[in-house]
Amino acid sequence: MKAENRKIRSGETADRGATAPRRLLLVKPRVALRRELAERLRDAGYQVTEAASGRRALTLCAARSFEVVICDWDLPDIGGAAFCHDFRALERTAECYLLVLAGSEAGHEILQGLDAGADDFVTLPINGHKLLARLGVGERVLRVEAELRASNAQLRAALDKLRDTQAAIERDLMEARKLQQGLVRERSGRFGDFELSLLLRPAGHIGGDLVGFFPIGTDRIGLYALDVSGHGVTAALLTAQLSVHLSGASDQNVALRAAQAGSDAVPPAALAHFFNNMMLEEMSTDTYFTMIYAELNHVTGLVRMVQAGHPHPMLQGGDGRIRAIGQGGMPIGVFENPIFDEIEFQLDPGARLLIASDGITEAASPGGRQLGEEGLEAIMRTNAFLGGHAFLESMAWSVSEYCRGERPDDMSAVLIEYLKPAEPVPIHGR
């Protein structure tokens, strides 16, 4: 080292704070200069290992972990660019800061070395303050890289935990879907000349729609379609509770409790008021639901129905003409003194009544246009030759095609068909 080089004074250290000494490898062929510089680096707080050649340094780096490497650009056994390249090719568990010492005229070599993997250069002759300043930069770089590695490790651990949690939630939701689908005990029923078919298709794992029916005495059946506001667990839990109140068990079914005492079943409008009071008085929630509940006399074809905010049922006569039934009414669980729409009408042989949720009528195309009642009428006309579950599945397919599979809401429906008596087949030739 030339006499004009400023020495690294004892006590001068790079920017390391209170951390343990950095492991530093000094690669310099000339013994006297290497040992002099190594001693000064030790005085500056580094744990120094010396190497006289580039290949020896690579061997040491392959066997041990260094945090800082200082090497000459002009190495007799291997060029500076080759050393930087081979050094970066080594497998290491931690980052290492590579600082190269080069002559002041080595402008092209500096660019070549940076491209080969060097982090920084210090030009000769060595200035003690300048070297420590460059090592301080390296310290900060290594500290930031260590913090990033720690943060990435924490992030990976959090993501792994999140994936495990999500997988557990996914399994629970799949089981919840099976349980919710089990709330619809029967998907079809035959009562005299009437055939009932049900469709329940949640948009996600679980939903807030519910459809079903139950017998009332010997000549009537109760049928319902509910749509709880929102989606997910909250809606599904309320749906499950409502299914208990509308189950086939007479001791739990709200509509059948009066029948147990020997009187008639609860009328449709009274049932809507019961649920409205239950929602406002017993449940601390902002959730509400819409409902169609009807009594069908399967002997006479008379229908008594309450509409509580649910989409209009569509009545298709035997002649194919379609009309919407009802005025709408108010949803359940919103107003203290609601007005529900009470309807009474007659079904004739060959007619069918479709009660569909807004997941069908409000299904939107990619352009944002809703299917609406006109679109539902078109589907009913197109599928007039189908009945029962074949009709419902074709309708569900048409809705999915209309919205290109992007269906954000649950889809449910009840189809009531008044089957025409079979016409006698004339026998010719007699």
UniProtKB/TrEMBL annotation:
Every Response regulatory domain range: 23-139
Modified sites of kind 4-aspartylphosphate: 72
Keyword annotations of the record: Coiled coil, Hydrolase, Phosphoprotein
Domain of life the protein comes from: Bacteria
SMART domains: PP2C_SIG, REC
Stretches of the chain forming a coiled coil according to its record: 141-179
Protein name, as recorded: SpoIIE family protein phosphatase
Organism field: Paracoccus spongiarum
Lineage: Bacteria, Pseudomonadati, Pseudomonadota, Alphaproteobacteria, Rhodobacterales
